[in-house]
Amino acid sequence: MAERDLTVGIAGLGAIGLHLARALDAGVEGLRLVAVAARDRAKAERSLAGFRQPPAVVGLGELAERADVVVEAAPAAVFEEVARAAIARGRIFMPASVGALLPRMRLVEEARRTGARIIVPTGALLGLDAVRAAAEGPVESVTIETRKPPRGLAGAPYLERHGIDVAAITAPTRVFQGNAFDAAQGFPANVNVAAALALAGIGPERTRVEIWADPGVTRNMHTIRVEAEAARLTMTIENVPSEENPRTGRITPLSILACLRGLTSTLRVGS
Ligand SMILES: NC(=O)C1=CN([C@@H]2O[C@H](COP(=O)(O)OP(=O)(O)OC[C@H]3O[C@@H](n4cnc5c(N)ncnc54)[C@H](O)[C@@H]3O)[C@@H](O)[C@H]2O)C=CC1
Ligand SMILES: O=C([O-])CC(=O)C(=O)O
Q1: Closest Cα partner for 196 from 112, 135, 238?
Q2: What is the pLDDT of residues 201-237, one digit of tens each?
Q3: Confidence check on the interface: ipTM exceeds 0.95, yes or no
Q4: Any idea which GO molecular function terms this record carries (predicted)?
């Protein structure tokens, strides 16, 4: 390991975490996977068995003791534990469960005190470079429309509270309309993209979100529209759902990997 290599720890070995772990183990210049945290230790050890350099399997809070960069790729319910430990130790904290950051913005203040950095990857979304650039000037509106196969929304607390059974939906149906803050609360495992967009642009209260359950689509689709003084943006991404977790697009671990590479690469492209 070169002296300037960054060590990486990953919380969660699911659709995102395991793919990311495999990619890092295959070799990424300047980065080295040293630890992972998993709910089921025996299963994790089986998943890591073929690795060239198997990372240590540790508790969630211990990742920050071992790694310079802590990637969170676990359910939102354990976000606080992972984030708190990483921030207390002044690490780079890279969350996938971005929706869980919105009601915890005090963590940003805490990071300022400890010298930690919180780096939100683009994840399953696109165009956050352009949104950030536009938000350096006046922005009139930011909206995101998320359209998923109904099974990609199943289990969301908002749907349960409103008695919406997505399995029974046979035509495209708008199941939520509101701001990004309420979307992240109501759909904690489904619209991290809306949270990331809000943080890149004009904040969770002003960012408008529509969520559609659409039996006619096979991909998780997100369309962003931004009306700003400098530019008008319209962008769509159509994500192939991952096999392990249909709520999660296959591009997500790739986006996190690209974001990690950006921490050490000599040539970095995009703002
Ligand atoms: N930012 C973005 O664009 C995206 C974010 N996400 C979010 O990323 C997170 C991870 O997503 P996936 O990998 O698809 O989920 P997943 O459900 O496939 O994997 C999560 C993993 O965490 C493990 N886990 C559960 N409790 C744990 C604990 N206490 N300690 C350690 N591990 C634990 C589970 O066993 C599972 O292997 C979710 O919150 C998801 O909503 C997902 C897709 C896109
Ligand atoms: O934002 C999310 O949580 C996941 C998502 O929509 C996707 O992977 O396309």
Answers
A1: 135
A2: 999 999 999 999 999 999 999 999 999 999 999 999 9
A3: yes
A4: aspartate dehydrogenase [NAD(P)+] activity; NAD binding; NADP binding; oxidoreductase activity, acting on the CH-NH2 group of donors, NAD or NADP as acceptor
